[in-house]
Task: inverse folding
Protein backbone atom coordinates (compact mmCIF):
# COMPACT_ATOMS: atom_id res chain seq x y z
CA UNK A 1 0.00 0.00 0.00
CA UNK A 2 2.83 2.40 0.86
CA UNK A 3 4.51 1.75 -2.49
CA UNK A 4 1.22 2.34 -4.30
CA UNK A 5 0.77 5.68 -2.52
CA UNK A 6 4.37 6.60 -3.35
CA UNK A 7 3.59 6.03 -7.04
CA UNK A 8 0.47 8.18 -6.76
CA UNK A 9 2.44 10.96 -5.04
CA UNK A 10 5.08 10.86 -7.78
CA UNK A 11 2.39 10.97 -10.44
CA UNK A 12 0.74 14.03 -8.92
CA UNK A 13 4.07 15.79 -8.58
CA UNK A 14 4.49 15.44 -12.32
CA UNK A 15 1.13 15.83 -13.85
CA UNK A 16 -0.32 19.23 -13.03
CA UNK A 17 1.41 22.07 -14.82
CA UNK A 18 1.89 25.33 -12.97
CA UNK A 19 -0.56 28.06 -13.91
CA UNK A 20 2.26 30.55 -13.47
CA UNK A 21 4.21 28.99 -16.35
CA UNK A 22 1.31 29.22 -18.77
CA UNK A 23 0.83 31.72 -21.54
CA UNK A 24 -2.29 33.57 -22.58
CA UNK A 25 -4.54 32.03 -25.22
CA UNK A 26 -7.27 34.11 -26.84
CA UNK A 27 -10.70 32.98 -28.06
CA UNK A 28 -10.26 29.21 -28.31
CA UNK A 29 -12.45 27.31 -30.72
CA UNK A 30 -15.08 25.86 -28.44
CA UNK A 31 -15.76 22.31 -29.57
CA UNK A 32 -17.48 21.72 -26.23
CA UNK A 33 -18.49 24.23 -23.60
CA UNK A 34 -21.12 25.15 -21.04
CA UNK A 35 -23.62 27.76 -19.95
CA UNK A 36 -23.61 28.53 -16.23
CA UNK A 37 -25.61 30.90 -14.06
CA UNK A 38 -25.82 31.60 -10.34
CA UNK A 39 -29.22 33.26 -10.27
CA UNK A 40 -31.30 34.89 -7.55
CA UNK A 41 -34.30 34.27 -9.86
CA UNK A 42 -35.59 37.82 -9.50
CA UNK A 43 -38.22 38.32 -12.20
CA UNK A 44 -37.80 34.71 -13.36
CA UNK A 45 -40.73 33.26 -11.38
CA UNK A 46 -44.12 32.31 -12.79
CA UNK A 47 -46.94 31.04 -10.62
CA UNK A 48 -48.50 27.88 -12.08
CA UNK A 49 -51.17 25.45 -10.94
CA UNK A 50 -49.92 23.74 -7.80
CA UNK A 51 -46.64 25.60 -7.52
CA UNK A 52 -44.14 27.85 -9.26
CA UNK A 53 -42.01 27.78 -12.40
CA UNK A 54 -38.45 29.15 -12.20
CA UNK A 55 -36.39 30.13 -15.24
CA UNK A 56 -32.69 30.75 -14.51
CA UNK A 57 -31.18 33.39 -16.81
CA UNK A 58 -28.62 31.20 -18.57
CA UNK A 59 -26.18 32.82 -21.00
CA UNK A 60 -26.84 31.94 -24.63
CA UNK A 61 -26.09 28.40 -25.83
CA UNK A 62 -25.35 28.03 -29.56
CA UNK A 63 -27.95 26.32 -31.70
CA UNK A 64 -27.43 22.81 -33.10
CA UNK A 65 -25.54 21.30 -30.18
CA UNK A 66 -25.73 18.06 -28.22
CA UNK A 67 -26.38 18.31 -24.50
CA UNK A 68 -24.03 16.33 -22.24
CA UNK A 69 -25.15 17.27 -18.74
CA UNK A 70 -27.78 19.23 -16.85
CA UNK A 71 -26.67 20.34 -13.38
CA UNK A 72 -29.07 22.17 -11.10
CA UNK A 73 -28.45 23.39 -7.55
CA UNK A 74 -31.62 24.78 -6.01
CA UNK A 75 -31.47 26.91 -2.87
CA UNK A 76 -34.47 26.75 -0.58
CA UNK A 77 -35.32 29.36 2.03
CA UNK A 78 -34.22 29.16 5.64
CA UNK A 79 -36.01 26.42 7.56
CA UNK A 80 -37.23 24.62 4.42
CA UNK A 81 -36.13 21.00 3.93
CA UNK A 82 -35.18 20.35 0.28
CA UNK A 83 -37.13 17.46 -1.24
CA UNK A 84 -36.58 15.99 -4.71
CA UNK A 85 -40.24 14.95 -4.79
CA UNK A 86 -41.24 18.61 -4.92
CA UNK A 87 -39.48 19.05 -8.27
CA UNK A 88 -42.32 18.38 -10.72
CA UNK A 89 -40.53 18.99 -14.01
CA UNK A 90 -37.30 20.24 -15.59
CA UNK A 91 -38.05 21.87 -18.93
CA UNK A 92 -35.81 22.27 -21.95
CA UNK A 93 -36.52 24.42 -24.97
CA UNK A 94 -37.99 21.42 -26.75
CA UNK A 95 -40.80 19.63 -24.92
CA UNK A 96 -39.61 16.23 -26.10
CA UNK A 97 -36.38 16.75 -24.13
CA UNK A 98 -38.03 17.80 -20.89
CA UNK A 99 -37.71 15.69 -17.74
CA UNK A 100 -41.16 14.77 -16.48
CA UNK A 101 -40.01 12.60 -13.57
CA UNK A 102 -37.05 14.39 -11.95
CA UNK A 103 -36.94 12.05 -8.94
CA UNK A 104 -36.01 9.19 -11.29
CA UNK A 105 -34.41 11.16 -14.13
CA UNK A 106 -31.78 12.87 -11.96
CA UNK A 107 -29.21 11.89 -9.41
CA UNK A 108 -29.95 14.02 -6.36
CA UNK A 109 -28.54 14.87 -2.97
CA UNK A 110 -29.24 17.37 -0.22
CA UNK A 111 -26.57 19.68 1.19
CA UNK A 112 -28.00 21.94 3.89
CA UNK A 113 -30.72 24.01 2.26
CA UNK A 114 -29.52 23.08 -1.25
CA UNK A 115 -30.96 20.36 -3.48
CA UNK A 116 -28.51 19.15 -6.15
CA UNK A 117 -29.71 17.44 -9.33
CA UNK A 118 -27.51 15.93 -12.07
CA UNK A 119 -28.34 14.17 -15.33
CA UNK A 120 -25.33 13.07 -17.39
CA UNK A 121 -27.30 12.17 -20.54
CA UNK A 122 -26.19 8.54 -20.45
CA UNK A 123 -29.38 6.63 -21.33
CA UNK A 124 -29.66 7.55 -25.04
CA UNK A 125 -33.14 9.05 -24.68
CA UNK A 126 -32.02 12.48 -25.82
CA UNK A 127 -29.56 12.09 -28.68
CA UNK A 128 -30.76 14.69 -31.19
CA UNK A 129 -29.20 18.04 -31.94
CA UNK A 130 -31.00 20.84 -30.12
CA UNK A 131 -31.77 23.69 -32.45
CA UNK A 132 -32.57 25.86 -29.44
CA UNK A 133 -30.82 25.02 -26.18
CA UNK A 134 -30.66 28.14 -24.02
CA UNK A 135 -34.10 28.16 -22.40
CA UNK A 136 -34.41 25.97 -19.31
CA UNK A 137 -36.75 26.05 -16.35
CA UNK A 138 -37.87 23.90 -13.44
CA UNK A 139 -41.18 23.59 -11.63
CA UNK A 140 -41.60 23.20 -7.87
CA UNK A 141 -44.83 22.18 -6.18
CA UNK A 142 -46.21 23.96 -3.13
CA UNK A 143 -45.29 27.38 -1.79
CA UNK A 144 -42.71 29.75 -3.23
CA UNK A 145 -39.78 28.47 -1.15
CA UNK A 146 -36.96 28.73 -3.70
CA UNK A 147 -34.63 31.70 -3.22
CA UNK A 148 -31.92 30.94 -5.80
CA UNK A 149 -30.50 28.45 -8.26
CA UNK A 150 -27.24 27.56 -9.93
CA UNK A 151 -27.55 25.83 -13.28
CA UNK A 152 -24.96 24.50 -15.71
CA UNK A 153 -25.66 23.03 -19.14
CA UNK A 154 -22.71 21.25 -20.79
CA UNK A 155 -22.83 20.70 -24.56
CA UNK A 156 -20.71 19.88 -27.62
CA UNK A 157 -20.77 20.46 -31.36
CA UNK A 158 -21.36 17.95 -34.13
CA UNK A 159 -18.50 16.55 -36.21
CA UNK A 160 -16.93 18.77 -38.86
CA UNK A 161 -14.48 21.66 -38.70
CA UNK A 162 -14.46 24.85 -36.69
CA UNK A 163 -14.01 28.33 -38.15
CA UNK A 164 -10.22 27.91 -38.17
CA UNK A 165 -10.49 24.69 -40.20
CA UNK A 166 -9.56 22.43 -37.30
CA UNK A 167 -11.40 19.13 -36.99
CA UNK A 168 -13.86 19.25 -34.12
CA UNK A 169 -12.76 16.85 -31.36
CA UNK A 170 -10.86 14.60 -33.74
CA UNK A 171 -10.13 11.97 -31.07
CA UNK A 172 -13.83 11.71 -30.30
CA UNK A 173 -15.15 11.68 -33.85
CA UNK A 174 -12.34 10.14 -35.90
CA UNK A 175 -10.98 7.34 -33.73
CA UNK A 176 -12.33 3.87 -34.42
CA UNK A 177 -14.04 5.05 -37.58
CA UNK A 178 -16.61 6.83 -35.43
CA UNK A 179 -17.70 9.73 -37.57
CA UNK A 180 -21.08 10.87 -36.30
CA UNK A 181 -23.35 10.88 -33.28
CA UNK A 182 -25.39 8.11 -34.89
CA UNK A 183 -22.35 5.89 -35.45
CA UNK A 184 -21.30 2.93 -33.37
CA UNK A 185 -18.59 2.81 -30.73
CA UNK A 186 -16.50 -0.22 -31.65
CA UNK A 187 -13.89 0.04 -28.93
CA UNK A 188 -10.62 0.07 -30.88
CA UNK A 189 -7.46 2.10 -30.44
CA UNK A 190 -8.27 4.69 -27.80
CA UNK A 191 -8.69 2.18 -24.97
CA UNK A 192 -5.78 -0.20 -25.20
CA UNK A 193 -3.38 -2.53 -23.45
CA UNK A 194 0.30 -1.74 -24.05
CA UNK A 195 3.10 -4.31 -23.61
CA UNK A 196 5.85 -2.86 -21.40
CA UNK A 197 8.49 -3.34 -24.12
CA UNK A 198 6.41 -1.08 -26.38
CA UNK A 199 5.56 1.37 -23.61
CA UNK A 200 9.16 2.03 -22.60
CA UNK A 201 10.08 3.05 -26.15
CA UNK A 202 7.26 5.53 -26.66
CA UNK A 203 8.04 9.24 -27.07
CA UNK A 204 6.00 12.19 -25.86
CA UNK A 205 6.42 13.95 -29.20
CA UNK A 206 5.33 10.99 -31.32
CA UNK A 207 1.81 9.64 -31.88
CA UNK A 208 0.66 7.21 -29.23
CA UNK A 209 0.80 3.47 -29.91
CA UNK A 210 -2.57 1.93 -30.65
CA UNK A 211 -1.73 -1.09 -28.54
CA UNK A 212 -3.99 -4.10 -28.18
CA UNK A 213 -7.71 -4.20 -27.63
CA UNK A 214 -8.82 -5.04 -24.12
CA UNK A 215 -10.06 -8.64 -24.34
CA UNK A 216 -13.82 -9.04 -24.22
CA UNK A 217 -15.21 -10.38 -20.96
CA UNK A 218 -12.20 -9.14 -19.00
CA UNK A 219 -13.52 -9.46 -15.45
CA UNK A 220 -11.22 -7.00 -13.64
CA UNK A 221 -10.18 -3.85 -15.53
CA UNK A 222 -8.04 -0.83 -14.61
CA UNK A 223 -8.45 2.20 -16.87
CA UNK A 224 -6.12 5.22 -16.73
CA UNK A 225 -7.22 8.57 -18.16
CA UNK A 226 -4.88 11.55 -18.54
CA UNK A 227 -5.94 15.15 -18.07
CA UNK A 228 -5.48 18.46 -19.85
CA UNK A 229 -2.68 18.61 -22.43
CA UNK A 230 -1.88 22.34 -22.77
CA UNK A 231 1.63 21.72 -24.09
CA UNK A 232 0.30 19.67 -26.99
CA UNK A 233 2.18 16.43 -26.33
CA UNK A 234 1.29 13.57 -28.69
CA UNK A 235 1.57 11.00 -25.91
CA UNK A 236 1.12 11.84 -22.25
CA UNK A 237 1.67 8.22 -21.26
CA UNK A 238 5.25 8.11 -22.59
CA UNK A 239 8.26 7.77 -20.27
CA UNK A 240 9.80 11.05 -19.08
CA UNK A 241 11.39 13.39 -19.63
CA UNK A 242 8.63 15.12 -21.56
CA UNK A 243 10.59 18.32 -22.18
CA UNK A 244 12.22 16.96 -25.35
CA UNK A 245 9.25 18.16 -27.40
CA UNK A 246 9.40 21.30 -29.46
CA UNK A 247 6.29 22.71 -27.80
CA UNK A 248 7.44 22.04 -24.26
CA UNK A 249 7.66 24.88 -21.78
CA UNK A 250 11.26 25.71 -20.98
CA UNK A 251 10.69 25.90 -17.24
CA UNK A 252 9.15 22.41 -17.08
CA UNK A 253 11.74 20.18 -15.35
CA UNK A 254 12.89 16.81 -16.61
CA UNK A 255 10.32 14.30 -15.49
CA UNK A 256 11.64 11.24 -13.75
CA UNK A 257 8.21 9.72 -13.21
CA UNK A 258 5.08 9.68 -15.34
CA UNK A 259 1.97 7.71 -16.19
CA UNK A 260 4.46 5.26 -17.70
CA UNK A 261 5.77 4.32 -14.28
CA UNK A 262 2.34 3.78 -12.79
CA UNK A 263 1.28 1.70 -15.79
CA UNK A 264 4.49 -0.34 -15.77
CA UNK A 265 4.39 -0.91 -12.01
CA UNK A 266 0.79 -2.03 -11.98
CA UNK A 267 1.03 -4.27 -15.04
CA UNK A 268 4.24 -5.94 -13.81
CA UNK A 269 3.06 -6.80 -10.29
CA UNK A 270 2.14 -10.47 -10.14
CA UNK A 271 -0.77 -9.99 -7.73
CA UNK A 272 -2.28 -7.46 -10.14
CA UNK A 273 -1.21 -8.96 -13.46
CA UNK A 274 -2.77 -12.32 -12.63
CA UNK A 275 -6.20 -10.88 -11.93
CA UNK A 276 -6.43 -7.47 -13.60
CA UNK A 277 -5.93 -6.01 -17.06
CA UNK A 278 -4.29 -2.56 -17.03
CA UNK A 279 -5.33 -0.23 -19.87
CA UNK A 280 -5.16 3.43 -20.84
CA UNK A 281 -7.52 5.78 -22.62
CA UNK A 282 -6.07 8.37 -24.98
CA UNK A 283 -7.75 11.68 -25.80
CA UNK A 284 -4.58 13.77 -26.12
CA UNK A 285 -5.60 15.66 -29.28
CA UNK A 286 -8.93 16.74 -27.82
CA UNK A 287 -7.26 17.54 -24.48
CA UNK A 288 -4.94 19.96 -26.28
CA UNK A 289 -6.56 23.33 -26.96
CA UNK A 290 -3.78 25.77 -26.10
CA UNK A 291 -2.36 27.00 -22.83
CA UNK A 292 -4.33 28.49 -19.99
CA UNK A 293 -6.04 31.80 -20.43
CA UNK A 294 -5.07 34.19 -17.66
CA UNK A 295 -8.40 35.97 -17.91
CA UNK A 296 -10.89 35.43 -15.15
CA UNK A 297 -12.81 32.90 -17.22
CA UNK A 298 -9.94 30.35 -17.63
CA UNK A 299 -11.58 29.46 -20.92
CA UNK A 300 -9.26 26.76 -22.24
CA UNK A 301 -9.17 24.77 -19.01
CA UNK A 302 -12.97 24.93 -18.74
CA UNK A 303 -13.43 23.81 -22.33
CA UNK A 304 -11.15 20.81 -21.84
CA UNK A 305 -13.18 19.80 -18.80
CA UNK A 306 -16.29 19.89 -21.00
CA UNK A 307 -14.54 17.94 -23.78
CA UNK A 308 -13.59 15.36 -21.17
CA UNK A 309 -17.23 15.04 -20.18
CA UNK A 310 -18.07 14.30 -23.83
CA UNK A 311 -15.45 11.55 -23.88
CA UNK A 312 -16.96 10.01 -20.76
CA UNK A 313 -19.94 8.63 -22.65
CA UNK A 314 -17.67 7.21 -25.35
CA UNK A 315 -15.42 5.59 -22.75
CA UNK A 316 -18.42 4.10 -20.99
CA UNK A 317 -19.73 2.57 -24.22
CA UNK A 318 -16.34 1.07 -25.05
CA UNK A 319 -16.11 -0.51 -21.60
CA UNK A 320 -19.70 -1.72 -22.03
CA UNK A 321 -18.53 -4.06 -24.78
CA UNK A 322 -15.78 -5.49 -22.57
CA UNK A 323 -18.36 -6.22 -19.82
CA UNK A 324 -16.07 -6.24 -16.77
CA UNK A 325 -17.34 -7.25 -13.34
CA UNK A 326 -14.97 -4.92 -11.50
CA UNK A 327 -13.44 -1.71 -12.80
CA UNK A 328 -11.05 0.82 -11.33
CA UNK A 329 -11.03 4.20 -13.08
CA UNK A 330 -7.91 6.30 -12.39
CA UNK A 331 -7.94 9.82 -13.81
CA UNK A 332 -6.01 13.03 -13.39
CA UNK A 333 -7.24 16.62 -13.46
CA UNK A 334 -9.86 17.24 -16.17
CA UNK A 335 -9.82 13.54 -17.07
CA UNK A 336 -11.98 12.91 -14.00
CA UNK A 337 -15.01 14.33 -15.80
CA UNK A 338 -14.65 11.52 -18.35
CA UNK A 339 -14.40 8.79 -15.72
CA UNK A 340 -17.33 10.09 -13.65
CA UNK A 341 -19.64 10.08 -16.71
CA UNK A 342 -18.34 6.69 -17.86
CA UNK A 343 -19.05 5.34 -14.38
CA UNK A 344 -22.59 6.72 -14.50
CA UNK A 345 -23.16 5.06 -17.88
CA UNK A 346 -21.86 1.72 -16.59
CA UNK A 347 -24.00 1.89 -13.46
CA UNK A 348 -27.07 2.62 -15.57
CA UNK A 349 -26.16 -0.19 -17.97
CA UNK A 350 -25.24 -2.97 -15.52
CA UNK A 351 -26.78 -1.90 -12.21
CA UNK A 352 -25.23 -3.74 -9.27
CA UNK A 353 -23.67 -6.36 -11.56
CA UNK A 354 -20.51 -4.26 -11.77
CA UNK A 355 -18.27 -2.92 -9.00
CA UNK A 356 -16.97 0.56 -9.79
CA UNK A 357 -14.11 2.31 -8.01
CA UNK A 358 -13.16 5.85 -9.01
CA UNK A 359 -9.75 7.25 -8.06
CA UNK A 360 -9.43 10.99 -8.65
CA UNK A 361 -5.90 12.41 -8.86
CA UNK A 362 -5.88 16.18 -8.28
CA UNK A 363 -9.32 16.53 -9.95
CA UNK A 364 -9.98 19.82 -11.77
CA UNK A 365 -13.17 21.09 -10.16
CA UNK A 366 -14.20 24.74 -10.27
CA UNK A 367 -15.15 25.89 -6.78
CA UNK A 368 -16.37 29.47 -6.64
CA UNK A 369 -16.34 29.41 -2.85
CA UNK A 370 -12.54 29.23 -2.97
CA UNK A 371 -12.17 31.57 -5.95
CA UNK A 372 -11.18 35.02 -4.69
CA UNK A 373 -11.20 37.11 -7.87
CA UNK A 374 -13.80 37.60 -10.56
CA UNK A 375 -16.71 35.24 -11.21
CA UNK A 376 -16.47 31.53 -11.87
CA UNK A 377 -18.44 28.30 -11.98
CA UNK A 378 -19.25 26.42 -8.80
CA UNK A 379 -19.07 22.70 -9.65
CA UNK A 380 -17.98 21.17 -6.36
CA UNK A 381 -21.43 19.71 -5.66
CA UNK A 382 -21.64 18.51 -9.28
CA UNK A 383 -18.44 16.50 -8.81
CA UNK A 384 -19.17 15.48 -5.23
CA UNK A 385 -22.41 13.74 -6.21
CA UNK A 386 -20.35 11.19 -8.19
CA UNK A 387 -20.40 9.12 -5.01
CA UNK A 388 -24.05 8.32 -5.81
CA UNK A 389 -23.17 5.98 -8.69
CA UNK A 390 -19.84 4.42 -7.72
CA UNK A 391 -19.05 1.82 -5.08
CA UNK A 392 -15.87 3.54 -3.93
CA UNK A 393 -14.74 7.13 -4.50
CA UNK A 394 -11.22 8.18 -3.54
CA UNK A 395 -9.66 11.61 -3.91
CA UNK A 396 -5.87 12.12 -3.80
CA UNK A 397 -4.71 15.70 -4.23
CA UNK A 398 -1.88 18.16 -3.72
CA UNK A 399 -2.39 21.74 -2.57
CA UNK A 400 0.54 23.85 -3.65
CA UNK A 401 0.92 27.58 -4.07
CA UNK A 402 1.11 27.32 -7.86
CA UNK A 403 -1.74 25.10 -9.05
CA UNK A 404 -4.16 26.14 -6.37
CA UNK A 405 -4.07 29.92 -6.48
CA UNK A 406 -7.79 29.65 -7.32
CA UNK A 407 -8.57 26.39 -5.49
CA UNK A 408 -9.27 24.28 -8.56
CA UNK A 409 -7.47 21.01 -7.82
CA UNK A 410 -7.58 20.52 -4.08
CA UNK A 411 -10.08 19.94 -1.33
CA UNK A 412 -12.24 17.25 0.20
CA UNK A 413 -15.49 15.83 -1.16
CA UNK A 414 -18.25 15.06 1.32
CA UNK A 415 -19.27 11.41 1.51
CA UNK A 416 -16.29 10.08 -0.46
CA UNK A 417 -14.52 7.02 0.91
CA UNK A 418 -11.16 8.76 1.05
CA UNK A 419 -9.84 12.32 0.76
CA UNK A 420 -6.06 12.35 1.13
CA UNK A 421 -3.71 15.29 0.72
CA UNK A 422 -0.36 13.97 -0.50
CA UNK A 423 1.81 17.08 -0.27
CA UNK A 424 3.38 18.47 2.87
CA UNK A 425 3.63 22.19 2.20
CA UNK A 426 0.81 22.98 4.60
CA UNK A 427 2.52 21.40 7.62
CA UNK A 428 6.10 22.51 7.29
CA UNK A 429 7.44 19.80 5.00
CA UNK A 430 8.57 19.90 1.41
CA UNK A 431 5.98 21.35 -0.92
CA UNK A 432 5.29 19.54 -4.17
CA UNK A 433 4.67 21.43 -7.35
CA UNK A 434 2.53 19.65 -9.93
CA UNK A 435 2.48 19.59 -13.70
CA UNK A 436 -0.33 18.98 -16.16
CA UNK A 437 -1.28 15.66 -17.73
Result:
Amino acid sequence: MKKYLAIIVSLLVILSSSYLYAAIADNPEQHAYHSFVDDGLFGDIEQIVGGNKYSPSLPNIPGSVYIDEVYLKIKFGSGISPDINRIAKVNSCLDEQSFLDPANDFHSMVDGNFLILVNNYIDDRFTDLLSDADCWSFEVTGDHDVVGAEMNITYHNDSGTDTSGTDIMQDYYSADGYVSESGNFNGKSTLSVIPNEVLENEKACEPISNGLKVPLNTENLIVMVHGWNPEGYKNYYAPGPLDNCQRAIESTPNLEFSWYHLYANLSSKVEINDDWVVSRYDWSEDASNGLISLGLEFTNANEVRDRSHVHGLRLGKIIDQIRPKRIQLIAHSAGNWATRRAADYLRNRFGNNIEIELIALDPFVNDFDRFTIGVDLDLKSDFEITKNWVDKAKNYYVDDSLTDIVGYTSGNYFGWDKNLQLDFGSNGGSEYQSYHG
Q: What stands out?
A: The first strand starts at residue 32 and ends at 39.
